[in-house]
């Protein structure tokens, strides 16, 4: 097993399935102990924990609603308390609410901003209280922050675009502590929410340069790289893992 992250502890929000689960497993494969949050699907989260512990790493699943700031802070503190430290934060949990502008409600707006903008901010704020020199913050955004090719994405794209500013500003602010902050923007990725065999997949594939969806492990590989020692001089950056969707 690769031990680049041996002795490190990571927290992955929304780590029970999809990209979050792949990121949690990738970090564990590199040697980290991993805490992950989930909201509803305890079974999937516990399956990820079981896979990590079977590989010889420690893991814990924490139920937390990312729309609740107190729950986000408690999850960060629990990850630190149960696993003894906190070196890596992956802000992955997200709300994916789409629709025509005139049909979106203020409730939709508040839920999206709470999960996609406020939760990463609150998690970063809580995490840096524990994070040592050399820590890593990795935000998971979306390719639609740079190229929204379909109608109905205004609210989601706006929320993910906010992570660009957060990433750049925190990269500057935390640089003196040798904590790096970077943003990964996935493109079309084969998950439950956007399956590669879905009805719109052919059209979506046509917008990429490579002509096909990513798998979650493709995005997780970038997360693993940014968490490791080879990325120590990268901060404030946006890395697109999108098959050329935005070129």
From TrEMBL:
SUPFAM superfamilies: NAD(P)-binding Rossmann-fold domains (SSF51735)
Alphabetic keyword roster: Oxidoreductase
Gene3D superfamilies recorded: NAD(P)-binding Rossmann-like Domain (3.40.50.720)
Tagged with keyword Oxidoreductase: yes
Superkingdom of origin organism: Bacteria
Gene Ontology MF terms: oxidoreductase activity
The Ketoreductase domain, residue ranges: 8-207
PANTHER family: OXIDOREDUCTASE, SHORT-CHAIN DEHYDROGENASE/REDUCTASE FAMILY (AFU_ORTHOLOGUE AFUA_5G02870), SHORT-CHAIN DEHYDROGENASE_REDUCTASE FAMILY PROTEIN
Family: Belongs to the short-chain dehydrogenases/reductases (SDR) family.
Name this polypeptide is given: 3-oxoacyl-[acyl-carrier protein] reductase
